Amino acid sequence: MTLKSLKVWALIGIALTWPVGTSAWAQDYPTRVVRMISPFPAGGVNDTVARIIAEKMSRALGQQVIVENRPGAGGNIGTDFVAKASPDGYTILSGGMGSLVMNPIIAKVPYDSVRDFAPVILVAESPNVLCVHPSLPVKSVKDLIALAKARPGELNYGSGGVGSNPHLSGALFVKMANVNIVHIPYRGSILATTDLLAGQVQLGFLPMPVSLAHIQNKKLRAIAVTGKLRSPSLKNVPTVAEQGLKGYEVSPWYGVLAPAGTPRPIISRLNSEIAQILRTDDVKENLAGYGAEPVGGSPEQYARTLREDIAKWRKVIVDAGIKVN
């Protein structure tokens, strides 16, 4: 047998045994601590959602799953950390639309949201709430559009910053309703909410966890939710689409992803365990406390959602001329 033939047979042998070895290795997973990276500060929605499922994952996997915060650059630092981590299932991401969809469109980031990640499962969705200061004489989307058309450029909405979900919720609304409402960016949704409560801005598309208490205390008036369906947390508040803007939907989501190249058996194991966790009553209740609803689904469904949202928001951002200052 020639040296060339030996090399060919050696390569064939490696090719035949690699999947078996990988599968066996994945069946033993995990054998040590799994880190779930939250690319935002502790206490935020992303971090909270991660901690709700991480506790249950520890029990299901038989190894501790710890949430590690790596905030900075609007979520880009922690997201990039996972993109460059070893694809072995021991470093995973609690990802959101901000760093995976919005940021890569608006600015240059050191990772590719589609190429560099293996989606595991879409964990939860939490729509924004279109809130107005009680002094604003509007009780519906129809009222708001009429007032904005009567007073072009006089109304303004606050958001947690350029390119944030609340900002883009407003940009999509302005485009679809064909109105002129001025965007006022803040350094975080809490600051935007504070000024809305004080009447410094007239309205805002606020994250539900930030706005719920103020709505319940009647310090803010909720006139619509931005999701496809009404929220169980605000059952009597109709969606924007219900009120005339057909096709309007903004449903910020939170999901789990692994570095690209992570073996499929590991992705499948994580997907299966988290899917079961999302069906438990206490997890549903905990998520509902933050205005979030469990989603679930396959890795392929999450991957499709990611690609579709990138295409959708690229058009909105380009049409609105949104750029980081």
Structure description:
The protein is an alpha/beta fold and 325 residues long. It folds into 2 domains: 31-126 and 252-320, Bordetella uptake gene, domain 1 (D-Maltodextrin-Binding Protein, domain 2, 3-Layer(aba) Sandwich); 128-243, Periplasmic binding protein-like II (D-Maltodextrin-Binding Protein, domain 2), CATH 3.40.190. 45% of the residues lie in helices and 18% in strands. It has helices at residues 3-27, 45-61, 76-83, 97-106, 141-150, 165-177, 189-197, 208-216, 264-278, 281-288, 299-320, and strands spanning 34-38, 65-69, 91-96, 117-125, 128-132, 156-159, 182-185, 203-207, 221-225, 253-259, 293-296. The strands form 2 sheets. The protein has a 6-stranded mixed beta sheet, sandwiched between helices. Strands 7-6-8-5-9 form a 5-stranded mixed beta sheet. α4 (97-106) packs parallel to α11 and α6 (165-177) crosses α11 (299-320). The longest helix is centred in the N-terminal third of the chain and has 25 residues, at 3-27. It is globular. The termini are far apart.
